[in-house]
Specification:
homotetramer, alpha+beta, Chorismate synthase, AroC fold, five-stranded antiparallel beta sheet, 8 helices, FAD (chains A, B, C, D), chorismate synthase activity (chains A, B, C, D), Chorismate_synth_AroC_sf (chains A, B, C, D), FMN (chains A, B, C, D), NADP (chains A, B, C, D)
C-alpha cells in the first residue's frame, strides 16, 4: 500500500534515494530457468543513462553498475526472489544545500512534505528520476522471461517540443538520438532542444510503446482491464500526464463507423490498440504517453520556502533538459512489467 | 485478481450480467456511522438511466430499483459489508438470438470468447454498460462517507462529436442535457447527435471530472501515484480510451517555464491538475477522459462468426447512440471510489 | 483489508447479518465450464443446518434456501462472478431486546463495540455462526471446481467434551451424529452432551480435516507457506482456538529420528501432514482444529453492561450447545477455499 | 503471491539464499520519524545467532552484520522504503556436494524440486533457517516503530524435549540459555539436549509469545481475524507445526462455564488469549507454537535420490540440534510484524 511495489505475480519492489548509499530492488515471482546475467540487465540500464540520447543530459556521471544478490544459480533463475543493487557513487549533496528550504515549482517537494512531514532535501529522494533505474532493471528481467514466448516491447519518441515525427520506423529507434521514431525529425528536434537549453527552459514530448506477441484473451474484465493496468503503470512514471490506448483522444472525435476495426484477416486497422473490453485481441498493443517538460529550469520562478514565505528560485544542479529520451526505456520497462505480471497471473506461461 | 473488485480499503465487488436474474455488489470497508438509505443511492442510479440525458437513449426501460441487504442498521452504516441488489426486470434476450454467433466489431465478443472459451451471448454480459449501475451505487456510498469531510466530485461533458464546450459552468451540469459543461453548446450537440442517429452511426466525446477538498499529502510515491490510481480507475470504464491529468497532452507541447505552476497564494494556475509527484497538493484534482463512440451501430460492418467465417453484421437491439451522458456519473463514481479508498488507506478519515 | 473477503484468485466475499434482510456472497475467479446448480450448493448448506447432527441444535429453523444471481449460464459457470443470496426468513429479534445492553462473556460484543463504536445487538451480527452459511456455499463451488482434478476434502469430529474417538472411519462421517470419526464413540458423546445441556453448559471438541489428491509442489516458501494459509483459514473460524498440521503439538515432544518421515514408497508415516517447507509433498494434507465450547450458556455469568457497570447475565435465545457438528462443514469449506485459491494461483488447473 | 513478502501496510520483502552473495530485505510502510540505526537492528540479529543460546549451535559463524541502504536520513526514518543487506561471508558450499543428489527426510528438498523443477543444493536455499535473519531485522524495525505506543512483545521457551517449564518468568528470558521461561528448568533441558546430541538426534519444543499494550478493537471480523493473522504468521515459520491462542487445545476440553472469561475489572483470567471474535479485547495477547525437532540428524535415514532411487542418508554439515532457542526471536519478530501491519492498516498509529 506504500507505493514501492509493482505487480502481484511478477512483483518488483524498489528502494533507494538519489543521494543515499544505494538503490535497488527485489523481483519476486520470476519463473525458474530463465537465463539471467548482470550484463543483460546492465545493457538496458546503460540505455537510460545520462548522455545516452541526443539531448544533452545531466552532468552527473554514474556507472550505474548492477549487482545480483540472489535468485540466480548457475546462470539461471531459481524461482526465488531476485535482488539487485546499484551503489550510488557520485553524490554531490552539497549542490542542494543552498536551496534546501525552497519548494521547487512543478516538483514533489511540497507534496512530500505534506505527506511525510519531512523530506530528504538532497535531490528528489524517491521522486528523483534516478529511481527509474530500478524499474529498468526489473523490466530487463521481465523481458528475459518473456523472450521465449515471442513477446517483445518497443518504445520510441514520436513528438518533442511540439514537433511530431512524420513516420514510425521502430526498429533502430533505441539507438537513435532521442530514441526518435523517425530519423528525419532529429535535426529539427536538436534545434528545438538547443533553443530550449539556451533559454534555460525545458521540453516535453510524446512516447509511443508497442507490445507484440501478446496472446488474445489476456486481460480482465470490468475494473481490472488490461488497458487500465497499462494506464496505471504508465501514469505512475514521474513526468507522465496523459495516457491513451490505440486511437486514444482521437477516438473521442471519431464516429462508430470510422472507429470500429472491421474483423477481417489480416486486420486493416487497429484503432482499438489491441484491446477490446479490457482484453487483448491478438493485435499489437499500442499506447502513448504525454511527458511534461521537466520542472527543473534555470528561469527564475516564484515560489515559497517551507515556512510559506514568498521567494524566488532558480534551480541549479545537474539536470536533464527533457525527460526524453531517458523516459523511453522506462516506458518500455513498465509495459514489460505489466505483461509479465498478467501473463503469470493468467497462467499463460508454462509451467 | 479477477477484475470484479475495486479498491483495497473501500472495496467494491460487483456481479451480474445484463440478462441474468440480478446485478449488484458488496462494499466492504465503509466507516460506521454514515447515514445511508436506499433513496440516496437511487438518486444517483436514476442519473445514469437511459433517457436521462438529452441524447435519445436506449429503448430499454429498467426501474433499476436498488435494495440494501446488509451493513445498515437504524439508518446508519455499521462498518460491516454493505450489500445491494438490483433485480433485472426487462430482459428481452430473444433480441440477441439472431446475431448470437456473430462477433460485433468494437465489442468484447471475440476477446471474451478468447479468454473464457464461452460467452453469455444475451447482451454484453459483464461487458454491458448495465454493469456500471453497480459502480454508480458504490460511488453513491463513497460520496455519503466523504461528504462530512468536504470532499466533492463533479463530472460533466466538455466535448461531443468533435464539438467542444467553450466554457465550463459546472454547477448545474448533471441536470443539463448531455451533462453539458456549457448550456450554450447544447443546440450544436443536439444537431450533431440527430445527424449521427439518422446515419445509424454513433458519437464519442470528452468528460472532465474535478475533485474538490482533497487534502494535500494524499497519494503514494513511485508506482502507486494518485494520478496512476485515477488513470487505472478511469481507463477501466468500458468506452474510455484516454486519460489525462491537468494539462495532460497539452503539457507535452509546453515548456517548463509555461507548464510549471508558480507556488503562490492564491494559486494562479493548475497545470498539474492538483497532483505533483503522485501526491495531492491541495488544489482541485482535474482529469479528462476520452470516450470512444459506442460500437453498436446500424451501419453494415464486416466481421466473422465465432467459427472465423467472414460475415456482415448490422447491430440491432436497444442501444444508446453515445456513451455520453450515461458515462458521466460513472466517471464521477470511479473518482469517488479512488478517493474513498485512498483516504481510508492513508488514515485521513477519522476514526 | 476489512476481513470479509477470502482468497485472491478464487475469491469469496461475504455479507449479511444474522437478523438483516439476507446474507450471501460473491465468488470471483471460478473457472468457466464448471457444472453448477443451486441444488448442489443447497446440499452442503443443509449439512450445516441446526439439527443436522446428533447434538440438539438451535431452535431456530431456517430454510437457508440459496439462490444464484449471476455467473452461471446454461448450467455451467461462465468465468464471471457467481453471486448467491440466502434470504433471512426467521428473525426473532425481540429475543435480544432484553439483554441488548449487556456484554456476553466469551462473545465479540465488547470487541465489536470497541472497534466500530456501535453494534447490531440483534444476535451476533457478522460474528454470528449464521455467517458461516456463506462460507459453506463458497466451499461447495470450490468443491465443484476441484472435483475433476481428483481433489477431495473430508472433515469429521475426533473429540468431543474431552472424549476422543478411538479410530477414524472417515467415509460416512458427514452422515453420522456429531460427524463422528468413529461410530463407536457416539453413545459416550451423546451422554456427555446431555449432561452439558442439563447443566446449561456447553462443550468443545476437535475436528480433523484431510485433503486428498493435492499435487506435490503446491504452496509457497517463506511467509506464505501452504500450512500458513491453512492456519489462517482455520483460525479464522469463529470458535477455533488452535490449529495443528500433521503431528502438530505432538511433534514438539518427538525427536528428529521419530518425527522425520522416511522417504519410501509407499509412505509409512505422515508426521509432516503432507507439507514440507510450506509446500505439499503429495501425501494427504492433515490438519486439526481445537473448537472452544460455545460461550452462550444458561449458567449465570459476571459481566458489565455497555457503560461498564457490573451485571449478571444468563444467555437465553436459541443456541447450539456446541459448535460441533455445525463447524465440521465449515472446516471442510475453508480448506476447499484455500486449495481452490492456491491451485488457481499456481496454475495447477487448466486452463 | 510468491511468498516472500509479509504484510500489506508494514510490508517486509525478503531475499537471499544461505549460500548466495547476500540476504536482506525491504521494509515499506514504516512511519516517518522513527529513530533507527544499524546498531538497533544488530542487537536483535545477534540474539538469533548460533551459540546465542544454551544449546550447542551450528559450527557456522557469521558476523551477520546488517547495513542500511535507504529510508533513513539524519538518524530517523523518512517514510520511504528501508532496505537492509547482510552479506554472506562464511559459505562452505563444498560441505553439500557429497549429498547434493539426496533428498533429506523432513526437509523441503523434495517439495522445492517438485515446485521449481530445480534447487540450489547448497544448504537449504530459501528454506534455510538463515532466511529468518531478515525476519528478525524486520521485526526490529517494527519494534522501534511501536515502542512509543507502549506495545511490546516478549517470547520465551516453555517446553523443550517434552519437559515443560513450571512457571513463566518472562523478564530475563531472552538472556537465559534456551530463552527459558523458568531458570529452574535449565539444568534438565541441558541434560536432555546433551543426550540428544550424543545420539545424533534432535529436539522440539514449545515457544510462548505475549503482546502487551495492544489496543482493544484491533483486528478484523470474519476471515481476517487477528488470531487468523497470528496463526498465518507463526505457522509460516519453518519448524512450526501448531499454533494456539489463549487456552488453545485445552479449550476443546473445557466447558463454556470454565472457558468463558468473566468480564470484570481487573480481569481474573485470559482463556481467550486477548482476542474475542477476532478482535483484541485489551488484555495481553497470548499464543503458543509447537516447534518440531529439526530434521538434520546424524542418525542414518531411508530416503531416495532426486531420480527416485532408494538410498540412505546421514546428514552432516553444520547444524543446530534444535530450532530452539534461535526460533524464539523469530516468533517475536513475526508477532511484531503482524501488529505493526494491522495497527497501520487500522489507523491506530498517528499520523
Amino acid at each position: 500500500m506504500s507505493g514501492n511495489t509493482f505487480g502481484s505475480h511478477f512483483r518488483l519492489t524498489t528502494y533507494g534515494e538519489s543521494h543515499g548509499p544505494a538503490l535497488g530492488g527485489v523481483i519476486d515471482g520470476c519463473l525458474p530457468g530463465v537465463p539471467l546475467t548482470e550484463a543483460l540487465i546492465q545493457r538496458d540500464l546503460d540505455r537510460r543513462r545520462p548522455g545516452s540520447g541526443g539531448l544533452t543530459g545531466t552532468a552527473r556521471k554514474e556507472a550505474d553498475a548492477v549487482r545480483l544478490l540472489s535468485g540466480v544459480f548457475e546462470g539461471e533463475t531459481t524461482g526465488t526472489p531476485i535482488a539487485f543493487i546499484i551503489e550510488n557513487t557520485d553524490q554531490r549533496s552539497r549542490d542542494y544545500e543552498a536551496a534546501k528550504n525552497l519548494l521547487r515549482p512543478g516538483h514533489a517537494d511540497g507534496t512530500y512534505l505534506a505527506k511525510y512531514g519531512r523530506r530528504d532535501y538532497r535531490g528528489g529522494g524517491r521522486a528523483s528520476a534516478r529511481e527509474t533505474a530500478s524499474r529498468v532493471a526489473g523490466g530487463a528481467v521481465a523481458a528475459a522471461m518473456l523472450a521465449p514466448y515471442g513477446i517483445t516491447v518497443t518504445a520510441y519518441t514520436v513528438e518533442l517540443g511540439g514537433i511530431p515525427a512524420a513516420v514510425v520506423k521502430a526498429d533502430d529507434a533505441p539507438d537513435r538520438p532521442f530514441c526518435a521514431a523517425d530519423p528525419a525529425v532529429i535535426p529539427a528536434w536538436e534545434a528545438r532542444a538547443k533553443a530550449a537549453m539556451a533559454a534555460g527552459d525545458s521540453l516535453g514530448g510524446i512516447v509511443e510503446v508497442v507490445a507484440a506477441g501478446v496472446p488474445a484473451g489476456l486481460g480482465e474484465p470490468v475494473f481490472d482491464k488490461l488497458d487500465a493496468r497499462l494506464a496505471y503503470a504508465l501514469m505512475g512514471i514521474g513526468a507522465v500526464k496523459g495516457v491513451e490506448i490505440g486511437s486514444g483522444f482521437a477516438a473521442a472525435r471519431a464516429t462508430g463507423a470510422t472507429n470500429n476495426d472491421p474483423i477481417v484477416t489480416p486486420p486493416e486497422s487497429n484503432h482499438a490498440g489491441g484491446i477490446l473490453g479490457g482484453i487483448a485481441n491478438g493485435q499489437p498493443i499500442v499506447a502513448r504517453v504525454a511527458v511534461k517538460p521537466i520542472p527543473s529550469i534555470a528561469v527564475p520562478q516564484r515560489t515559497t520556502d517551507i515556512h510559506g514565505n514568498p521567494a524566488q528560485i532558480v534551480v541549479g544542479g545537474r539536470h536533464d533538459r527533457s525527460a526524453i529520451p531517458r523516459v523511453v526505456p522506462v516506458v518500455r520497462a513498465m509495459v514489460l512489467l505489466v505483461l509479465a505480471d498478467l501473463l503469470l497471473a493468467q497462467r499463460r506461461l508454462a509451467p
